[in-house]
Amino acid sequence: MNGFACYLPDEAMLHLRGEKVPAFLQGQLTCDTRKLSNSQALMGALCNVKGRVLTDLTVVQLSDTHVVLRLRRSLAPRIAETLLRYAQFSRISVEVDPSDTAIVGVLDPESATNADLVQDGLVPVSLSDGELYLQRGAAYGERISLDGSTPASLASQHDAAIDDGPALWSQAMLRSGHYAVDLGDVESFTPQTLNYDLTGLVAFDKGCYTGQEIVARLHYKGRSKKRLQIYEADNGAEDLSRDASLHNGNGDVVGRCLRKASADGAPTLVAGEVQSEMLNEAVYLVSGEQLRSLDFNYALE
Question: What is this structure's pTM?
Answer without folding.
Answer: 0.92
